[in-house]
Design a protein that fits this description.
By secondary structure, the chain is of the alpha+beta class. Helix content is 19%, strand content 32%.
Length: 391
Amino acid sequence: MKRSLMLAEIAIIIIAFAACQTTKPVMQPQTPQEGLQAKLTPTSPGPCSIQTASSGFSPRSDSSQTTIQLNIKASHNDAVKSWKIAFASDQGVQRTLSGTSLPDIVTWDGRNDSGSNAIEGSYTATLYLDYGEAFLQASATSGSFVLDQNPPTAVISLSSDYFAPSNPGDLLTISITSVHSIAKIASWTMDIKDPGGSLFKSYRDTWPNYQVSWDGKADNGGSISSGEVYPVEVRLRDEYGNVGTIDSMVPIDIIVVKDAQGYRIPNSRIFFKAFTADYSDIAPDLVAQNTSRLDRLAAELKKFPGYKIKIVGHAVMIHWGNKKLGEIEQNEVLLPLSKARAQAIEKALVERGLKADLIATDGEGADHPVVPNSDLVNRWKNRRTVIYLVK
């Protein structure tokens, strides 16, 4: 009897265990934290953009284009936790700006992260947005723009090494060739100055016009002086307002003028050491000009065989306002000095093949000035050597 009861209990236990194995499992409810995590899974925030307000800028210019502005747009500005903008050239990131509240406009002054001027070149700006857990991170890159750090440069070239407009229509072409290409040249000016430093002729134009044809006349109608050198200054302005200056010079050739007595060379223009007749112990560039000018003077005079040559030296008087001192200066300094300089030119011409017996010299000091010696701006014209050719 007891055995039968024990077997029955074992059977009941086996049946109950089998039932547990076939019953569907009961789903456990999510905890509040697990539900919140599923709800905050990041999604795309939508488009963002960064655009430049201009094609470039020049921090060193004298215009309003010393910085560049970038306009920023994002789909969810209020959700932005932090932002960063990286300014990069082909040599890598040069400057990084960052913050928390996203601005509509960001301005860059062209400096790198160390505060120095960033390298010149083509740039892009990349915007990075961090939305925290609200959205996925986003980014956008601007179009390229130019950072122009250096002034434009150019080469000035002349159609002739020496200019001597002896006939109507004789022109000198002065050309400007740009050699700095990071920015386009917008406009330029060219000022030709006389040997005394005063403005003689001025030109203004815009690119791509890059040359002028000069007839040797001044803005006021005056003419150039024989044998002189006229400085040229060109100022280039590029599209971002950066300005560069290039200097050159126009050497004026020996000009022969016909008059009632024969021919005359108004000025041979030889540079001398102060208060001497020495034209060799001076700056090397002036020595080179003297050598070239004497060579050309000798060649020009050889075109007049049978003519006698008279070389007359002239000087500038310093004590023009004091009659007594002026007379002393004229007799003791200027007359012998101007005579000695004429003789120095005579010697140089003989060394270059001209006959000494056809050459005579004289010195007039401050007599017969071209302009009053009191004209401090233009009295450089009185310091000259005139050569006369007579039968």
